[in-house]
Specification:
- With 337 residues, this protein is an all-alpha fold.
- The chain has a single domain, classed as Ribonucleotide Reductase, subunit A (Orthogonal Bundle).
- It is 62% helix and 2% strand.
- A two-stranded antiparallel ribbon has the order 1-2.
- 41% of the residues are buried.
């Protein structure tokens, strides 16, 4: 293992630190940043810190048992997949952070790592309350479709994480854009469809979704655009980016169709799922500065459900302490994302 310099007084000026390549001094200076979006996103992440104990899960087991068999299956398979997403993301972020050069960007990634672990804790708290924790976390051993989705996501993460070039780092960042921007979204929507039937699950997902879509996705969209802007990225690499998002859409639709065919619940159709995933994929491409390539439709019912619960003004309460607080609404400018 090559020795690492934790202090490099001859390193480059802090304002010259790029995300890829270079020789940093070793300082994290929030008052001097090459970019604006990194400290802005950090502040928003920090302001919106929450903990699983703040969600009322007292009646989760009783509410879960009142669901139909298909609804219970959707609940379990959704949380089984979402829990993998956050577990994989936490590990990936640690690896991606080692590739990054800019120390302030690395600091933001450190905070996201903490939040991904918090999401994993929230699944444990929720599923323990529902009385099916062990079953749900072990579902990948018995459900081939769930295992296949997890495996395909893991392979996309692993493909370029060794770094070594700006192109590989860009492709690696795209894997995270796919995770935060596509692989979570149907799962969030399924729980919102169940809605008031499982208020504990719904409220826990509200906080997780807000983290992913309000800060984590903007972070990697800006990382992607910055690496693209600061380096001479080849056309073939951009072609690979399009290939990755086509693969992400295929992964998400394959699992969505599997759930729909085997565990149909009221209000969900194949057409609705396809339109939702295509719309999300087009939006993610636009957010990273690329042209959309999928068939576009008007905003779907599932998109509206997810958007409704992203409202940061609604009130949350701690059932045990009877206090009320708001998920922070910030005026922080996330640049053009």
């Amino acid at each position: 293992m090559r020795a690492k310099k934790y202090y490099n007084p001859k390193g480059e000026n802090i304002l010259d630190e790029k995300i890829f390549g270079g020789s940093p001094t070793g300082f994290v200076d929030f008052n001097r940043s090459r970019y604006r979006w990194d400290s802005n996103i950090y502040d928003l992440m920090n302001a919106n810190t929450w903990f699983p104990s703040e969600v009322n899960t007292v009646n989760e087991k009783k509410n879960f048992e009142l669901l139909t068999e298909n609804e219970q299956a959707i609940y379990k398979l959704t949380f089984a997949q979402l829990s993998f997403n956050d577990s994989a993301q936490e590990e990936y972020l640690s690896d991606f952070r080692r590739l990054a050069n800019n120390r302030l960007v690395k600091a933001v990634l450190s905070l996201q790592i903490m939040q991904e672990v918090n999401h994993s804790k929230s699944y444990a708290v929720l599923l323990d309350a529902a009385g099916n924790s062990g079953e749900v976390f072990d579902l990948y051993k018995y459900d081939a479709a769930l295992n296949r989705k997890n495996q395909r996501i893991a392979e996309q993460f692993a493909r370029y994480i060794e770094g070594g070039s700006a192109e590989k780092m860009l492709l690696s960042a795209m894997a995270s854009v796919n995770l935060e921007g596509i692989y979570f979204l149907l799962g969030f929507a399924y729980i919102y469809v169940l809605g008031d039937k499982v208020p504990g699950a719904r409220d826990m997902i509200k906080f997780i979704a807000r983290d992913e879509l309000n800060t984590h996705l903007p972070l990697f969209a800006n990382i992607f655009k910055t690496i693209h802007k600061e380096n001479k990225i080849s056309t073939s690499t951009i072609d690979d980016i399009y290939g990755m998002i086509k693969e992400a859409v295929d992964i998400e639709l394959e699992y969505g169709r599997y759930l729909l065919e085997n565990y149909p619940i009221m209000g969900l159709t194949e057409d609705l799922i396809e339109k939702t995933v295509y719309n999300y994929a087009n939006d993610r491409l636009e957010k990273i500065g690329l042209e959309p390539i999928f068939e576009q439709s008007s905003q779907t019912y599932l998109q509206k459900l997810v958007q409704k619960h992203l409202n940061m003004n609604d009130v949350r309460s701690n059932f045990f302490e009877s206090n009320v607080s708001n998920y922070a609404k910030s005026s922080i400018d996330l640049d053009d994302f």
